[in-house]
Amino acid sequence: MVYATQRAERLGAIAPVVGAMFSFDEKPSRPLPIMLINGGQDNEVPSEGGFSRNPLVSRNQAAPYKPLAEMVQFWTAANRSLTPPVITRSGSVTTSVYRSAPNGAVTISVVDDVGGHGWPGTRGRRQGNNPIQSFDGAERVWEFFKTQSEMP
Description:
By secondary structure, the chain is α+β, with helices and mostly antiparallel strands. Helices cover 22% and strands 15% of the residues.
């Protein structure tokens, strides 16, 4: 997400999967549609923020991750997204859509309460940390990007 904050003018939209932010010092130069996808059981990039529970990652982590709730607040402010969000729940997945205000951009947070770390719809690579299985990540991200390209 560092690139997105530094080069927003070069991007049409972003969809970080299990993405993390370490600081909110840099703001994007313009609103940038974003869909954040996270697993509620991710122990490598925990939703509550802090340090990774994976020793290899945490040893190399210079700063704690920001909590997902704070990242959503950062992006809704940067995007001038409308609050409160429109929230839908399907099985273990909660989708919060903060609609775009005039001259703003949409901010979407997708959280699967039982998903772990990794690309949604793929098999787990590490014991005890299985990726989201409730949807295919490529399809979900592609649908988001297609809707952004249809915007005026």
